[in-house]
Design brief:
Blueprint lengths: L1 H23 L3 H11 L3 H17 L3 H16 L5 H17 L4 H21 L3 H18 L2 H17 L3 H17 L3 H18 L2 H44 L3 H69 L6 H21 L8 E4 H10 L10 E5 L4 E4 L1 H18 L5 E8 L4 E8 L29 H11 L3 E4 L7 E8 L1
Parallel strand pairs: 2-4
Antiparallel strand pairs: 1-3, 4-5, 5-7, 6-7
Length: 502
Amino acid sequence: MKRVFLVIVLNLLFCCATVIAQENQKSELEQRAEDDSKNGKMVSARSNYIRAFGDYANKGMMKQAVECGTKGASLYYQKEKLYMEAFELLRSIDQTISASSLNAAEKAALHYLTSKERMQMYMKMRRGESVKDHLNNMEKYANASNDENVVSDLLYNKAIYYYTFGQTDKGNAVFREMAGRLTSQKEYDKVDEVYKTLIAAGLRSGSANMVAQSYNNYMAWKDSVAEVRRTDETGALKQQIAGHEATIADQASTLSTRWMTIVGLGVLALVLAVVLVIGGIVLLRYIILSRKQKKAIRMANESNALKAKFISNISAQLEPTLSKLDGRIPEVKALQDFSSHIQTLSELEETSSDDIAAEEVQVAPFCEGLMDEIRGKVKGNVTLNVKAPKMTATFNKEYTSHILRHLLGNAAKYTPEGGSVTLEFKKRGPHTFQFLVTDTGEGIPAEKREDVFKPFLEIKDLTNGDGLGLPICKQMAMKMKGDIIVDPEFTKGTRFVLDLVS
């Protein structure tokens, strides 16, 4: 018995030494970045990941360098939405990969990681076409890498894309392919991990469809492989026992040695049984929790839809009465506008998934016309600037005009005498561009920049505005598969950035 105990202690010490050695492979900068990230110090974590990228690259450790670099890029946009900085960092990483001495397959595997990070950025921005473009790039790199792990990861990201953008049948097909690939390789734990990851992603994003589809596919897969897996596990256990018995037959010279080996096998069997029982309990709790969360998500979605419909119905019922009142009275006019804004906001939310038409527009005349509308509304000596190239862009003219007209109106209202208002157009990529509206007013406090796009947060005197203008603009931008934000880097007034996709 003492010899068995000694063997167990030596095995534990070996495992601990292996873990410590693996931890020591990380550089000090990478370890510091991980610690900062765990403690919520995102800016410091980002800086250390970028420095770790440069340090690893200088040492020729390209895989570690790219992993740190992409983590740094993700910290640019996860909370602060600094997309331009993230794209710039990823371009620098790609240049470093191309300049390295790696072979073509190794470079392809690393380019896959940077393209994957870009795809995740566009997923966060809900830009479906850009996500699709980068999935195509990822597929080229995955095929060139000759790495089965990369191919499996590609299938996982394809499934996420299809489920996120409502292409359920394609998502199911990709997931079946991925599950079949891993199952044929007897990588059952990896299939389990992939399904659970997808379910967790659906829960985080609030996508009841993704959670439901992932859960149903997961249960179907478990039923199909349960017997095969039991047979494999039984066979593996039998082989293990047979191996130990052979070892006993070959090496045991005394009854005491054989007895100690049998005791060791008994302990191993007991540990395996305990692990299986604990695993079953954990999985059962996870399934029960997933079912509860699925029900809660469905009830929340139904509740939100009913609230939106209720508010819209109230507005519609008030409209006939309000139209009979004297609109020249400020309070009546404010109520009429409030009712109209509620109707508009409700209609945008109810039709958020509907496609809208786009047309080709001459950018310079379009911007000049919008700026002309506010010339009589600005205070004395306010300079109006338009920076728009002579080119065309494709977008929904009605929604874009509404958004920019509202932003320019606010800029005219809040810009003091002697200030300036600027409308600018920038081409950001083959299918992406921006309109920027900048003024030199007091600016919006950092803690309120997100709240300005949320309706009904404050009780307002309607004669001073109902606060629904920017939420309506936000809904219109999202319906065009774009977004609108307050630029956090601009501090000499206020700058709104309208991102659009052609």
